[in-house]
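Hey all, quick one. A colleague (J.T.) asked me to put the 3-isopropylmalic acid job into the tracker so the inputs and the structure tokens live in one place instead of scattered across chat threads. No bug as far as I know, just bookkeeping. Sequence used:
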Amino acid sequence: MGVFANLRPAIVLPQLVDSSTLKREVAEGVDIMVVRELTGGIYFGQPKGFGKNSDGEPIAFNTEVYSVSEIDRIARVAFEIARKRRGELCSIDKSNVLEASQLWRQVVTDVGKDYPDVKLTHMLVDNAAMQLIRDPKQFDTIVTNNIFGDILSDEASMLTGSIGMLPSASVKTSGPGLFEPIHGSAPDIAGQDKANPLAMILSAAMLLKYGLGEKQAAERIEKAVTITLDNGFRTGDIMAPGKKLVGCTAMGEQVIKALQAIERVYSH
Ligand SMILES: NC(=O)c1ccc[n+]([C@@H]2O[C@H](COP(=O)([O-])OP(=O)(O)OC[C@H]3O[C@@H](n4cnc5c(N)ncnc54)[C@H](O)[C@@H]3O)[C@@H](O)[C@H]2O)c1
Ligand SMILES: CC(C)[C@H](C(=O)O)[C@@H](O)C(=O)O
């Protein structure tokens, strides 16, 4: 599909501050957009495979490859997004060791010249992993490669309380996108009606916003999610004392109920 830009917002909703494993003062107010490059890097680079080294010992290898145009286009997406947010973009790489990251930093810096209104910083990925936990509010928009984005967005999801809260949009410059939660199939809880459906529901909101340009409809879904949380409903992963524990199905039904109430207000 060529959807090279994977947008993964990690927002700590006020209702869920205490579901975060971090202290309230660290988690409160976190609002980060991770822009992950999705179609390049070590996942796809050639050569890759299995072989034997000169001693005949079996080896396996992958290659981190990025071209200037691949970095340029993801950087532009990230700068455009940062421009509409706090105007701060942190590019995360491993340029102290990896040549592909050195090119990444160079190209992001060059693209930055076209966006003088955005404050660009660079951070090494190991430090970024630590800073995301130490002081996540320092981040506004993050741009990073495929594998670092995969790992850091899962880490960022825990600031919000649960990986079950994080939606994502995978888009390209024009044409269809792909919208899905950042989590996987959760095999350990499969078939038990325990999964948090909010990441999936919020992914539908991202589809409306980024895929179809239906901002108002997206906002209604987001509002229905916050109303459901305001009403105290929680799946197990975000459960807190005094809240109502529900399963995946019941949580989904509560969101639909809230959405129907919102629609009634708008239709009058
Ligand atoms: N977007 C994707 O396509 C995607 C993303 C991640 C993993 N995967 C795949 O999913 C499979 C399982 O991977 P994994 O176990 O490493 O990651 P996972 O995201 O499926 O699960 C990690 C942990 O998070 C929990 N979790 C995930 N979603 C949840 C939800 N909605 N509500 C509550 N808890 C939730 C799970 O129970 C598990 O404990 C693998 O095959 C992996 O390749 C796919
Ligand atoms: C399943 C896996 C290939 C996938 C990825 O790394 O792209 C997942 O971890 C994700 O974050 O969507």
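Adding what we noticed when we looked at it: The chain has a mean pLDDT of 97. The radius of gyration is 20 Å.
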